[in-house]
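Sample entry was shown:
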Amino acid sequence: MKSSAHSKISGCAKSFDGVDIYYEFYGKKGPTLAFVHGWMCDRTYWQNQIEYFTKSHCVVTLDLGGHGKSSSGRKNWTMTSFGEDIRAILEKLELQKVILIGHSMGAPVIVEAAQLIPERIMALVPVDFYNDVDDRMTEKEVVEYMEQVRLDFRNWTKTAVRRWVPQNADPRLVEWIAEDMSSGPTEIGISAMENARRNIDSLALSKVKLPIHIINSDFWLTKLEVAQKYNSDLKLSILPGAGHFLFLEKPNEFNRLLHQVIMDLS
């Protein structure tokens, strides 16, 4: 482990299957915020949040297994295995009263973590996910969808990223995201995507007995009432004018909104 000029401690924790999970911890008084990235991303996507939130909280960013600086070697990249990665970090750092913030695929991952270690977690903040938890793929649809992903993983990913943002999004940012996400390990990306598509959101949400506050953009319609059928305490805030990567597209607005949500949850 090593320290930086920004009071950062970095290191690795062993997940349940021996995969090394890289993390960066920023110490400060107050509850701990753990930021969990999405599919084919890594901890650096949260850079715009670190300086803002370390003024009042402890902050943890991490690379899920197979992403960023974390190691690979896992046979099946499931949402539960990623949830175990979070457990490894929180247990190594002996953290309590943690608010988990998970973007995109990171949303079902933090829901899995909440079921594994509910005693360490205070609340969940899914980011741009759970738009319609009843809109699930059939097994046939998953197979057909994944055939397209496998056909040309790199170009499929680039095209998908460009579809996930509004036309007025910063083109340099969009192309950076597209290039970065499409350059990751193909087999890990395919396995994680396939498992995410098979994840049954409604069943997982119904098992969580912690406060959940979703932050979504208005790029897609969010059907809050559908999610509340499975978790009646679930709340929603909308950040207008952004796409899927709202915390990168509008970091200042996102930070202020997330800060308010955290205050409400604390």
Q: What stands out?
A: The chain has eleven helices and nine strands. Residues 127 and 205 are 14 Å apart (CA to CA).
